[in-house]
Amino acid sequence: MPFLILLLLLALFLPVLLFLLFYRMVSISFVRLGIPRPLVFFLFLSILVGGLINIPVWQTQAMEPGNVFRLGHVFFLEPPRVITTIVAINVGGALIPLLLSLYLLPKAPLLRMGLGVVIVALVTNWLARVVPGEGIFLNPFIPPLVSAGAALVLGQRQAAPVAYVSGTLGTLIGADLLNLRDIAQSGGTFLSIGGAGVFDGVFLVGVVAAFLSPGRRT
Fold first, then answer.
1. DSSP letter at 66?
2. Cβ count within 10 A of residue 27
3. Domain boundaries, the chain
4. Nearest Cα to Cα of residue 160 among 92, 96, 215
5. Whole-angstrom Cα distance, residue 129 to residue 126?
6. Helices within 33-179 (DSSP H only)
7. CB 3.0–4.6 Å: which of 3, 31, 48, 201 could bond 143 by disulfide?
8. What is the pLDDT of residues 135-178, one digit of tens each?
């Protein structure tokens, strides 16, 4: 009986403990990136909650060709139809990271950040896959690893802001924006920039980028 109670307590408190550990890791990352400590919890909560919020910004249309199908001995031609794809921006996976990138822009040379963005955009565009009817799939470890590698070469002492900005903007451009046409032609009716397909990768970019910064008290 005590063993069952222990298991029950563990099942109840383990998710809370993991959440607190995760928050601690992320808060250290934000502080080391130069985010004021009083804003860290608000920013963390905004990203998590914002990941569930998509703001429609525009829509695209694509023509789907008609199909021939058979019903008994009679053949029918299904007429072409227009597929409308609603494009939205995810608050937690795109909007807030974009604002953070703007905040970090003055912290490193613009040319280095621009080169980092191009590198990450090319790699993520090459590796991202458009899944018909679902959206974009991208391994979440690719953006932080590529942006960290680019930042270590380009950023030097400003590696952390270069990694974050290039990882965020490069992923959103390469994985999402450059695939808008393919998404519209794949039969999908909704695309969220910074949504489920790339949200984890953009989030991890901030965690990895922070550890490239010089030591700072947290």
1. P
2. 18
3. 2-210
4. 215
5. 8
6. 37-50, 96-104, 110-127, 142-154, 159-171
7. 201
8. 778 888 888 899 989 888 887 778 888 888 998 999 999 988 88
